[in-house]
Amino acid sequence: MFLGSKRGAERFLVVGLGNPGLQYEKTRHNAGFEALDLFSQDFNIELSKHRFDAVFGEGKIGDSRVIAAKPQTYMNLSGKAVAALSRFYKIPVNRIIIISDDISLPVGNIRIRRKGSAGGHNGLKDIFELMGTEEITRIKIGVGGMEEKSGDLVKHVLGKIPAEKAEIYENAKHSAAKAAADIIKNGVDHAMNEFSK
């Protein structure tokens, strides 16, 4: 597996999860897409390439080369794009960063994990299955759970954040974008200390 001969040769893959299409914009499930857009803007990465079942672009953070991508397969098949991009660019799993929504976290919270189960998130589940490991760094953006346990989960994740929580939600997406950059520059442990509060 390609590991690079020196730090300057390292490549990272940062993936924001979501569903393509106007009907899914601003929904809870598209938190990863929106954070990835912010990340790309911060580092002038133009998401203009259409290949590997993804929209993606290339840029640099410090000495590291970065591929920023949004899978276009719909959430449940996100692993196709991650596997194809990581294979083509020879990026090992320890340099893949996934940004996704999380209904177990309150709106406005983010959490960084270097491994663990998908926790019921079908996009993460597909990625872990196709990559053959759960040891992939992920940044989770809290979108809040359902108040009614008997409610419709699909309707919930495809719904929008209430207006009264819009500001803290926006801040969380910006924090997730900054956390991804911090992982690349300073490592997962540093980012966990800085952002998982």
Explain this structure.
- This protein is α/β, with parallel strands linked by helices and 197 residues long.
- It has a single domain (7-195), classed as 3-Layer(aba) Sandwich (Rossmann fold), CATH 3.40.50.
- The protein contains six helices and seven strands, in the order E-H-E-E-E-H-E-E-H-E-H-H-H.
- Strand 2 and strand 3 (54-61) form a beta hairpin.
- It is globular and about 45 Å long.
Topology:
Elements: E1 11-16, H1 31-42, E2 49-51, E3 54-61, E4 64-71, H2 79-88, E5 96-102, E6 110-113, H3 122-131, E7 137-142, H4 153-157, H5 166-186, H6 188-195
Helix pairs in contact: 1-5, 2-3, 5-6
Number of helices: 6
CATH class: Alpha Beta
Number of domains: 1
**Which geometry do the CA atoms define?**
globular
Task: Give structural attributes.
alpha/beta; Rossmann fold; seven-stranded mixed sheet
What can be said about this structure in brief?
Helix content is 34%, strand content 21%. It is an alpha/beta fold and 197 residues long.
